[in-house]
Amino acid sequence: MNIIGAITPTTKMNMDEVEKFLENKLNLQLATIDEKGDPNIQPIWFDYDKERQKLLVVTPRNSKKIQNLKKRNVIYFSIDDETFPYKGIKGKGNVEVIGDSNKTMPLIKKIVIKYLNTLEHPIATMILESAKEGNHVLVEISPRFFSTWDFNKL
């Protein structure tokens, strides 16, 4: 994976730091382009599959994000910690939308557990039931690069 220093070369994270940062419970800001050519940015839960170097998100099948991705499967994303000293990762990637609940359920459960620490929470129940019915899908992002910053390194 190509890692770029977003601010200065000295604030750039290495791959181990990137992987550790992506374990955080921060929202991924997902940017798509709508039918008018305007940006659409949504905060969303995510998980990082470090073996395959993929970012994974779950969203309703009929969401604006999915409608936009059907027209153009390229996105921008940003994940940042707003607590000083600031750090974050942004990038550009191609996506694949996966709707087969047999393939997606284990990954969706992993995302839900990351953010809620349980599958018993009402939000978890709602997402999992919707995914079983085919109404939530998994979006697999293949980043082209990571542009990183870590103000701890200044």
TrEMBL record:
Tagged with keyword Oxidoreductase: yes
Pfam family, any one: PNPOx_N
InterPro entries, sorted: F420H2_bilvrd_red/Heme_oxyg, Pyridox_Oxase_N, Split_barrel_FMN-bd
SUPFAM superfamilies the UniProt entry points to: FMN-binding split barrel
Cellular component GO terms, alphabetical: cytosol
GO MF annotation: an example: coenzyme F420 binding
Name assigned to this protein: Putative pyridoxamine 5'-phosphate oxidase
UniProt source species: Candidatus Nitrosocosmicus arcticus
Domain Pyridoxamine 5'-phosphate oxidase N-terminal, residue spans: 16-144
Keywords: Oxidoreductase
